[in-house]
Amino acid sequence: MDSLNAPALGVVTVSVWNADGWSNAVTFEFVHNDPPVVDVRAFTNVNVPLTWDLAGEDLSPAQLLVAINDNSTVLTGGFSILSNAVVVSISQLDELGFGSYTRLVPPSIPNGSHFYSQLVVFDAVTGNVSAVSSIKNTQVGPFGG
Question: Which of 12, 68, 92, 144 has its CA 20 to 30 A from that of 43?
Fold first, then answer.
């Protein structure tokens, strides 16, 4: 999500160096992710760390929701949100709109289970839901690695 390592949101000038010298300068505009994004592995094992990378509006309050084996949703404030999820992280996204959360997958989770993950972002002033990510699926199993 941060392949260009944005120093800040807004317009920046970028040049690239290779054996032939510097490239022509180009401008990029770094903006927050809209809609928000949650990035998590599609497959995992128990007893290993699982990391969720989060992206949304800069400096916004956010919650990471995770539901096990149930991807049903409920319409809330015009947004489809996981209905049987647990809030596993409450945070504020950083000045670039990024965050992350890591947790060890408990050994009690049966192989073949699915984690359904969603990022919910809130308006910092009203506290209302302002945006939600799509739902990501992670399957737990004995996977090689």
Answer: 92
In this structure, is residue 5 part of a structural domain?
A: no
Domain that holds residue 77: 32-140
Name the residue with tokens 């260009």. 4
CATH number at 91 reads 2.20.130.20
The per-residue pLDDT string of the chain (145 residues; one tens digit each, 9 = 90 and over) reads 334 566 677 888 888 888 999 988 888 787 878 899 999 999 999 999 999 999 999 999 999 999 999 999 999 989 999 999 999 999 999 998 999 999 999 999 999 999 999 999 999 999 999 999 999 999 999 887 5
Annotate 89-119 with DSSP letters as a single string.
Answer: EEEE--TTSEEEEEEEPPTTSPTT-EEEEEE
The dihedral of CA 124, 128, 130, 133: what is its sign? positive
**53: in domain:** yes
Q: Which two tokens stand for residue 19?
A: 């054996």
